[in-house]
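Summary for the steering committee. The consortium agreed at its last meeting that each partner would contribute one worked example illustrating the joint modelling workflow. Our contribution is presented below. We chose a case with several input lines so that the handling of multiple components could be demonstrated. No manual editing was applied between input and output; the record is shown as generated.
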Amino acid sequence: GAVVSQHPSRVICKSGTSVKIECRSLDFQATTMFWYRQFPKKSLMLMATSNEGSKATYEQGVEKDKFLINHASLTLSTLTVTSAHPEDSSFYICSAPPRSSIKETQYFGPGTRLLVL
Amino acid sequence: GDSVTQMEGPVTLSEEAFLTINCTYTATGYPSLFWYVQYPGEGLQLLLKATKADDKGSNKGFEATYRKETTSFHLEKGSVQVSDSAVYFCALSKGGGNKLTFGTGTQLKVEL
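What follows is the complete predicted structure of the assembly.
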């Protein structure tokens, strides 16, 4: 099946620094990718929709200047957590629907664990 | 807004036991309903889905029926295996799009 990778799988950073997380579709193209955040024992919460060639669309309550999203190509989206704080510690997951797939088909990355000290 | 509620875990079963994981939803209109599974260290994978009332989704021995009258989409399997140990997420989407609203996930552990 189709594969989505995320890098890094785990990252620890100091408070105030920025962290970039990559989401790649390895064997298909995606004009749209989704970024989710998962808190312990909570559901995945959609943060934003990454759009190739245009600005990302953020969900209500998500700070766009805090979570910068860039859809650099049809196979790569990045999420940068700027000036990270301990409350940004979480599990970040991306998903990508193939450009040429039937509707409601998408593939998820394995997630990135962020710990801000 | 839309929401999905699923039973709290973890659920621990013996191999060959019957599994039910409850899922109910709140949404306007006619959402599509999904069950995703996440095995340790891997990304979420679509297990099954149903797009309209009374549809039954099935895959790998798992089944779920879209019940509009009870706004439910309970996951069932007649005989679980150790390899079914994973976290199961119920989710919905609307309008044929890919934005998903997830439940909190239910961890299943199957023991010999």
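The CA atoms of residues 35 and 87 of chain B lie 10 Å apart. Chain B touches chain A through 24 residues (CB under 8 Å).
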